[in-house]
Design goal:
- Strand 1 and strand 2 form a beta hairpin.
- Helix 1 (59-70) runs parallel beside helix 8 (248-265).
- The model has no long low-confidence stretch (mean pLDDT 93).
- The protein has eight helices and eight strands.
- It is of the alpha/beta class.
- The chain has one domain: Alpha/Beta hydrolase fold, catalytic domain (Rossmann fold).
- It has helices at 59-70, 85-91, 108-113, 118-136, 153-164, 184-194, 211-227, 248-265; strands spanning 5-13, 17-25, 36-39, 75-79, 146-151, 171-175, 201-207, 236-241.
Length: 269
């Protein structure tokens, strides 16, 4: 039996920078290979290193709990997005999904700084992080063993990455996605263009208990209403909890359900 590990990698990012990637490998038998969930905001996923101003997803505890309940577990790969809020939003917002929809009260200097870099982050995940993880850790490869999950801007980036690479991911955890930053009709158009034989399972969640989450909820409902006209019903799960805020405390229990769904149904997704 191999003991659990939480390892930090430092990988090259954008040529001149590096980015921390934290990898939780649960306790596992010799020779046992595990499915994997890639996640944004690695700085908030594990209780030992999260910034004090944010909550925690407690992913390590979720994996242990799932192992006790179903006998199944996953490796969690948390990619850090811990720079300024503007930089985080930039690197988790894809340009090709459509023009940025700036709030009326956003200062002009912030607008000028918001140059989307989501495609670069996507490339980092698929062409740097995933090969490194598959080389160094006991990972089950193949789309049926691979999921991606994120919240807020990370939820938007998750939607982009999984829909862009349906051959690599079977499941997307799209939590409180920042769809309000884009125009619904452009998100829908982009989604239609990406549809192919492999259609990922979209697990979409939103709360509505603060201003930001209310706006996200309205945009999320609009996107879901539009894509549900052409996306397979069995591949689309939607949870709206109006009493929940835009916070890790809301995403933590939803992640547990996503984890269970992915681990127990991944071969059919």
């Amino acid at each position: 039996m191999n003991s659990e590990k939480l390892i930090t990698l430092e990988l090259a990012y954008l040529g001149t920078k590096t980015k921390n990637v934290r990898v939780f490998v649960p306790e596992h038998d010799d020779g046992e290979l595990l499915p994997v969930i890639y996640m944004t905001d690695g700085q908030n996923l594990f209780d030992d290193n999260r910034p004090h101003q944010f909550g925690c997803w407690y992913t390590r505890e979720a994996v242990k709990e799932e192992r006790e309940k179903s006998g199944k577990a996953a490796i969690i790969v948390g990619i850090h997005n811990d720079e300024s809020p503007v930089q985080r939003a930039k690197e988790l917002t894809p340009k090709s999904m459509g023009a940025i929809r700036f709030p009326d009260d956003m200062p002009e200097h912030i607008r000028k700084m918001m140059v989307p870099e989501g495609e670069a982050f996507d490339d980092f995940v698929v062409n740097t992080v995933m090969p490194e993880i598959e080389k160094r850790f006991p990972v089950l490869t193949g789309r049926e063993n691979t999921a991606f999950c994120g919240s807020s801007s990370g939820g938007l980036q998750t939607y982009y990455t999984v829909m862009s690479h349906p051959d690599k991911f079977c499941t997307a955890g799209v939590f409180s996605p920042t769809f309000p930053m884009l125009y619904t009709e452009e998100v829908v158009r982009w989604t239609k263009e990406k549809l192919g034989e492999n259609k990922p399972y979209l697990y979409i969640y939103s709360g509505a208990n603060d201003r930001m989450e209310q706006e996200i909820c309205e945009s999320t409902k609009a996107v879901i209403e539009a894509i549900s006209k052409f996306y397979p019903e069995e591949k689309l799960k939607v949870i709206i909890l109006p009493e929940q805020p835009h916070h890790e405390s809301a995403w933590t229990p939803i992640f547990k359900d996503l984890l269970h769904t992915f681990l127990t149904r991944r071969e059919e997704l």
